[in-house]
Amino acid sequence: MDWDDLRIFLAVARAESLSGAGRGLKCDAATVGRRVARLEEAMGAQLFVKSPQGYALTEAGARLLPHAERAEQAMAGASEELSGRAGHLTGSVRIGAPDGCANYLLPQVCKAIADANPGLEIQVVALPRVFNLSKREADMAIAVSPPSAGRLTVQKLTDYHLSLAAHRDYLATHPPVTSLAELRGHRMIGYIPDMIFDKELDYFAETGCETVTLGSNSVSVQTQMVRAGAGMAIVHDFAIPFCPGVCRILPEAFRLTRAFWLIRHADDRRSERLNRLAEALRIGLRDEVNRLETLAHEAT
User: Fold this and answer.
1) Which of 5, 144, 244, 250 lies in disulfide reach of 39, CB 3.0 to 4.6 Å?
2) Which are the contacts of 59, defined by CB distance < 8 A and separation ≥ 6?
3) Which of 1-5, 40-44, 103-107 has the lowest mean pLDDT?
């Protein structure tokens, strides 16, 4: 069996289309189709069936998938071993993350990892939703709650905290807040209620506020609204150092604790390369959260 054919099989299985696989492989859809047909002939089994949604795995294709993924891991490990970069991570890795983590934490963490591993290419995909690892939208994903189903490995990375916050310009022109009950007289910034993709993001349920006047599905947009003096929000403590003039409100009365979790394919636990990267992410995120939260608290 040709590894290159298996590589194309994996691309079609993840993209669920010939054209999508071709874009990732940098070849045309017709070539992808011919290579899939060649593999099916060699295997003596149909691996895909075309449906209205695209190319779906047959039973035989589903049985082949984990073997192809293990072959992919073995090839990546061999490439790293023979690359001449002993002790260094190499190749490409794609990390999915919620946009708050991607904007305020991962730039610094990825810089440190890249500095220590010159042959490593890191891609960060920031989306305000849950990633689909089975389609290889990412090699690993950071989430705000652990999944309850699927062939996945889950590792807690670090706790983080959120506080009520506003810009000093807003506070100077609006009534003071001395208790949570007084929040109802203020303009609140938060998630669009019907676009909250994880229960851990439903912050306002704990404040008694029921109305979000300015909403966004993006943490970064919400934080910039606060920075513009548009109102109050529940803000990641680690984002506050990036927002001059923004300070915490009622820090002794209100503070939320949440966690980041690293989600990976179950089979990837056999990959020493990905295990080492996961550990670098864990240490880097933990230290960066602690550093930024300390700055935020000193500024209050």
Assistant:
1) 5
2) none
3) 1-5
